[in-house]
Each structure stands twice: as structure tokens, then as C-alpha cells.
Amino acid sequence: MQRETLAAQAVPAVGVAAMRYRWPGAADDCLSIEQFEIEAGERVFLRGPSGSGKTTLLSLVGGVILPQAGTVSIAGQPLAQLSAGARDRFRADHLGFVFQLFNLLPYLSARDNILLACRFSATRRARLAARGTSADAEAERLASRLELGAVLHRPAAELSVGQQQRVAAARALIGQPGLIVADEPTSALDADRQQAFIDLLLDECAEAGAALLFVSHDLRLAHHFDRVVDLVQLNRVVAEAGA
Ligand SMILES: Nc1ncnc2c1ncn2[C@@H]1O[C@H](COP(=O)(O)OP(=O)(O)OP(=O)(O)O)[C@@H](O)[C@H]1O
Ligand SMILES: [Mg+2]
């Protein structure tokens, strides 16, 4: 555990180099990024107009899609060097995703949706054990911090959108992955919950030494972060953004 933390600090959480991505069938590249790094533990706010490629970049960082050229590395590991199965396992161990559409399993309870992240990752379970806690206890703790305690037993399909968003956050955070990637995670929350959500995300990332890549249109949230990155400036493709 300690060795893993030290190793994670020595290499960037995310490394993107000479990377180009074009969606299948598209006439033009969506993204062309010469260099982009997120340091271990760094909190980055990613902005850019609708259609500029923010979600696409997060999918590349997650290894969900692979670039046609260049490299994307997580904690020093180039994702394209892993087989599809190994990439899935690597993602489960090292990345927590909060998606724009939360991707909860509707028939599972909030608790089981949160625990799913641990079921697929022995590494996450081992990190919890090293802290003297269990997946169940940690799910309870996160749920209580996110004001989800009363709905933990309810199927995700019966939760409000804001509750689903918080379940997705707890699922990303449980077991302390080194990188949390969040795509518009506060869009469905009221102002008070938005603040509580950001506080929780930042606290948990700080405690775990996790880096945070956070996408939002809401520039009022930017001051919580170490750095603001504008994708239109980062991307060498002149996109017809904002359509
Ligand atoms: N699955 C896909 N297949 C083909 N093209 C796609 C796909 N997903 C996104 N695109 C295209 O890639 C470009 C960038 O889309 P992306 O979803 O990354 O933008 P975004 O910045 O996340 O926008 P928003 O702020 O609206 O979420 C758009 O032109 C979009 O049409
Ligand atoms: Mg998007």
C-alpha cells in the first residue's frame, strides 16, 4: 500500500502525448493533443463548450476508447499496451468514474451499486482492508456523508436524479482509486448539495492522494481546483464547437 502510494506520487496520474482521436466514420479528428499531464493528487477543472470533446477525452483517459495515434497513460501505464481484459481490470483498480449519465444498474440497490466497484477490484478491497475497514462499512460511511443513508436499500431506479448522482460518486470513491474522473457530476444537484458534493469529492481525493479530473460548464466551481484547463486551447483540432 505504502509502496503503491509512493510510486503513484513519482509518476503523473495522467499522461497524454502526441495523441489523436477520430470517431469511426467522422471526417475530422475530434481531438489532437500534443501534451497533457495531471500530477498525482492534482485537481484539474476541464472546461470547454458542448461538443468540444470533453467526454471523449475522459473516455480516452479511461481506456474505454483508444487513440489512433500517440499515448494515454494512467499512473505511468500506457493503456494501449494492455489487452482489453487487462485494461478493464486496470480501470477497476485505479480509476473512479462519475459519468454524465450515471450508469447505475437500475434494479440493484444504492448499496449494491456502490459495492460493485469493490466486487470487480481485489485491489480496492485490499486498500480498504489496509485501512482497517470493509467495503460494507465504507459504503455506509460514504452514503452517510452524501446524505444517502435513508435510501441505501432502495433500487437505483427509484432514486431522484440527484441521489443517483451521489450514489455514482460513492461508487467512484470507494476503495481509493488514484484517479477520479467526473463528467458534469453536479449538474443535477441543488446549490447546497452541489457544495456538499464538491467538498466530499475534494476531501476524499485529498485523503486518498487521488488526482481529480472534473468536467463542468459551471465556472463558479473552478476556484476549488488547482488548475483550469480549456479544452479548446489544448486541442489542436479547430473544432466547430458549441453547435
Ligand atoms: N459515440 C460517438 N460516436 C461518434 N461521434 C461521437 C460520439 N460521441 C461523441 N461524438 C462526437 O465527438 C464530438 C465531441 O463530443 P463529446 O461528447 O466529447 O463533447 P462534450 O464536450 O463532452 O460535450 P457536452 O458538453 O455536450 O457533454 C462531438 O462532435 C460528438 O458528436
Ligand atoms: Mg460531455
Automatic annotation (TrEMBL):
Xref: Pfam families: ABC_tran (PF00005)
Q: Give the SUPFAM superfamilies listed for this entry.
A: P-loop containing nucleoside triphosphate hydrolases (SSF52540)
Q: Where is the ABC transporter domain positioned along the sequence? A: 14-241
The record's GO molecular-function terms, alphabetically, read: ATP binding; ATP hydrolysis activity; transmembrane transporter activity
The keyword Transmembrane helix appears for this protein: no
For this protein, the record's CDD domains field holds: ABC_MJ0796_LolCDE_FtsE (cd03255)
Domain of life according to the entry: Bacteria
Q: Which UniProt keywords apply?
A: ATP-binding, Cell membrane, Membrane, Nucleotide-binding, Transport
Spans through the membrane:
none
Could you tell me which InterPro entries the record lists for this protein?
Answer: AAA+_ATPase (IPR003593), ABC_transporter-like_ATP-bd (IPR003439), ABC_transpr_LolD-like (IPR015854), MacB-like_ATP-bd (IPR017911), P-loop_NTPase (IPR027417)
Q: Which GO terms describe its cellular component?
A: plasma membrane
- SMART domains documented for this protein: AAA (SM00382)
Protein name per UniProt: Methionine ABC transporter ATP-binding protein
Q: Organism, per UniProt?
A: Thauera humireducens
